[in-house]
């Protein structure tokens, strides 16, 4: 946020999408590296890298080291129901994804919904940033769909270290989580889950656990 000087809607945008186009001006003392952006391209909210650049080009470095904490698996098993129960818009429409941030005791800190799960993650992280509450305390990100490379990348850049999902991750998501030190959980449902990376943050207490080997 400190790098931003001004953020305004573009006057040239035409209806009905005049609120979807913005102009960003950087602060005078910003050290924003335009060439680095051109080299790395950008991470979109779409599903997949989409051929914009190689995976190595869009692997970005986290500004924070992954956190050291543990989450008990009986706490973990309760996250999907808590997430689903808090989805007010899904209850009305049946067609929205959700991203929620939970503390290590399973309490829901915040939730955001969107038709795209990537957008829901952006909204969730952005809500904390705008309120001046980022980084949050030790916490886990829970998403309602599968975990893509981009979602792991967003979590990494935000300094989150624990990601869980009711569906499976992509192989690229697993690779990035493994090399970056993030704990990645998938298929969290029906009393069980798959553990893909970094078990040190998981306190196993007897839930049905499948440990999935990573590629080395």
Automatic annotation (TrEMBL):
Keywords: Cytoplasm, Molybdenum cofactor biosynthesis. Pfam families: FdhD-NarQ. SUPFAM superfamilies: Cytidine deaminase-like. One of its GO terms (biological process) is Mo-molybdopterin cofactor biosynthetic process. The keyword Cytoplasm applies. One of its GO terms (molecular function) is sulfurtransferase activity. PANTHER family: FORMATE DEHYDROGENASE (PTHR30592), SULFUR CARRIER PROTEIN FDHD (PTHR30592:SF1). This is Formate dehydrogenase family accessory protein FdhD. It comes from marine metagenome. The lineage of its organism: unclassified sequences, metagenomes, ecological metagenomes.
